[in-house]
Amino acid sequence: MNVQLRFFASLREQFGSHEALTLAPGTTVGQLRDLLMARSDAHAHALGRSRALRCAVNQLMCGEETVLQEGAEVAFFPPVTGG
């Protein structure tokens, strides 16, 4: 299934504002986060479980247990973001 990733604030500065990914059906937000953390040390540091990080799917706040659907937009951002 295809999803769109969006990064905000300091994450956007590191990884760009967006990208498209193809994932296995039934992938959760937590599994997606794990996949992203495995990409590089920079990803592991920025997206690590010790970091305060918010997630939203289709502009609705969600937890890591949320199952992604085809065409979903998944956003990652720090808890406080600026203008």
Automatic annotation (TrEMBL):
One Pfam family from the record: ThiS
UniProt KW keywords: Nucleotide-binding
InterPro entries: Beta-grasp_dom_sf, MOCS2A, Mopterin_synth/thiamin_S_b, ThiS/MoaD-like
Family as reported in the entry's similarity comment: Belongs to the MoaD family.
NCBIfam families: moaD (TIGR01682)
UniProt protein name: Molybdopterin synthase sulfur carrier subunit
Organism of origin: Roseateles koreensis
Gene label: moaD
